[in-house]
Amino acid sequence: MILPIRAFGDAVLRRKAQEIDKDYPELKKLIENMFDTMNGANGIGLAAPQIGLDIRLFIIDVSPLADDEDYEDIADELKDFKKVFINAKILEESGEEWKFNEGCLSIPEVREDVKRKSTIKIEYYDENFVKHTDTFQDIRARVIQHEYDHIEGILFTDHLSALKKKIVKGKLQKIANGDVSVNYKMRFPK
Q1: Of the residues 40, 126, 148, 169, which has the maximum number of CB atoms within 10 A of its CB?
Q2: Is 108 annotated as a binding residue?
Q3: Is residue 190's pLDDT more than 80?
Q4: CATH 3.90.45.10 correct for 5-180
């Protein structure tokens, strides 16, 4: 089932999310609905706060990037990279910082360059509540960091310089007011 994505200005996007356990009600169905929602919006990541739940759960599927010529050198790694992260904790961020033009399903029509480290080490549970500690790099690390920020109550626009924040302020207010056109279901703040 496709769920509405919460828009910028919704308080749930600013809350630090809570951990869950393996008995969380209808977890498998929730994860399935999140993938349906993300795919329906042509996204590559989605965090539970973006659908109104302040729980430490996010999903990513970067397989669509495998066909992008910018990633042809890692296309094989990307083509099956679809993961669920529950109760994630980034243990380490390392490597060079690099800029990348990020966007967000909760902040449509706004894209800006964000600097992030190239490599992360993260501890998390998968959809079967099996614990993992993995290291990721390149675009995979970036998408994970972006979604991880969501469960920490942080948006990509928080990483912008004061000047860039000033420039996008009007666009963000329009989104919060529901004055944006998207091809997916959104729920705007009341």
Answers
A1: 148
A2: no
A3: no
A4: yes
